[in-house]
Amino acid sequence: MTSADLPSIADVSRSLLSVPVAADGPGMIDQLRELEDLKSLAAAKQARIAVAFDLSQRREQAAAGVPAKEQGTGVAAQVALARRESPARGGRLLGLAKALTTEMPHTLAALQSGQLNEWRATLIVKETACLSAEDRCAVDEELAADTGTLSGTGSLAGAGDRAILATVRAAAYRRDPHSVARRANQAVNDRTVTLRPAPDTMARLSALLPVAQGVAVYAALTRHADTARSNGDDRSRGAAMADELVQRITGTPAGISSIEVQLVMTDRTLFQADSEPARLAGYGIVPAHWARQTILGQQEHPGPGPADSAGAPETDVRAGSGTDVWLRRVFTAPGTGELLAMDSKARLFPPGLRRFLQVRDDTCRIPYCDAPIRHHDHIIPWHQDGPTTSTNGQGLCEACNHTKETPGFSARPVPGPRHTVELKTPTGHTYHSTAPPPPGTPAMSHGVAGMHPSGPPAGTASTSATGTARDMAPRTAPGPGRGDPGSTMRERAVCPSPKKHGVQVLGRVVPYRSLVVQRGPEAVPAAPP
Ligand SMILES: [Zn+2]
């Protein structure tokens, strides 16, 4: 039998699609179970393929003279792109695949037969990560043979995630009691602070801390809240703790008067009470009224903001809370909503252009990566004559920037609905990433990555758009300083009275579509025109 006679995965998908939904209830339940088994089988197959791919890439890299220490770079990123996952998750999936195929064959077999799903296999691998390869193999065998955990017929048949975790943990501790200590040491390295959006324009700020520090922080906050409440403060205990947390970390009661908060919105949303939502950098989409209230200082804050007049009077909005608000206009091309900016002759992206990339790209531009932007990258590298322009610039996270530099990866800007980048991987697959639509543009394909056997022809994206931006250059010139090729212009806007809803814009009226609005004295020098 030749490989041409064997079915491809596409053949299997087509067969599966043609299977009719069962006619009766019992049949439907059977189908649900069988499909679940199929998903597990697919996960096991993906694990084997990922490991084989890793080996083949390493072999190719070795043949190309890549030092042994650097072999394997870029493999996880390619697995992530193929599986439509973030690069970080791609790395975890590859790690899972290696552990299953090399050290935990029984767990892999259980996954393949549908007794475990990919998530539970991940839990088992994670719980044994602190063990040596030998001990891990032993735990794998113990789980399979002694308890029947993996076969689904033993004492843990029907067990949930927690029960499986407890069994695996117990087996691991028995095998290597010292792993507890090692694990604790390793866990300290994972300490971190994260922010996730929550419903109703709330955010969940989480800190993963060593237990002593976590308890200490919590105790300090509760002590403060209890004292405040015993002195007549009528806030709830939780609210008092939350307010104190914000004040201690940012140094101000409202939390945003001295920290840069970037809101991207249309002029209509700010000035004409339009309902088009805005985008808050690092959070996502926020309702229009919330954005207006934030800018005008009408949010219900527990305490008054400090009177802060550090900003230049020509460039600020006096909002209700007395803090400075900066308006920066960003021009968009009609129809596509592509943001327009100017270029620079410098090798490094100057502050204005960096800010522009930040606003345009919002998060890392590698497909499926939502990480915050840490690097402003020349898509075509400077040493390959890539210019310092908004078209040739993109925002990347640290890990993706590193991946992009790996031999075999290349990228270039290509024509697209908005700013579009084509990423080519060592296997010759291409993926496209398009900048998210700024507020006020009709919903279009958002940062979608496609896989194209052959990419669109090379070209500089939107030359006409760049032309338009240049046309606007004289009007944007009185920015924060010459040589700052920012996309933007500051406009003096004054809120006549904190009680009035709305702001009055002084200066030349130029039609524009999007605004970047910031509260607080930010790092940009405020030179008057
Ligand atoms: Zn990234």
From TrEMBL:
GO terms for molecular function: endonuclease activity; nucleic acid binding; zinc ion binding. Residues 457-469 have a biased composition (Low complexity). Residues 298-319, 427-502 are annotated as: Disordered. Residues 352-402 form the HNH nuclease domain. InterPro entries: DUF222 (IPR003870), HNH (IPR002711), HNH_nuc (IPR003615). Belongs to the Rv1128c/1148c/1588c/1702c/1945/3466 family. This is HNH nuclease domain-containing protein. The lineage of its organism: Bacteria, Bacillati, Actinomycetota, Actinomycetes, Micrococcales.
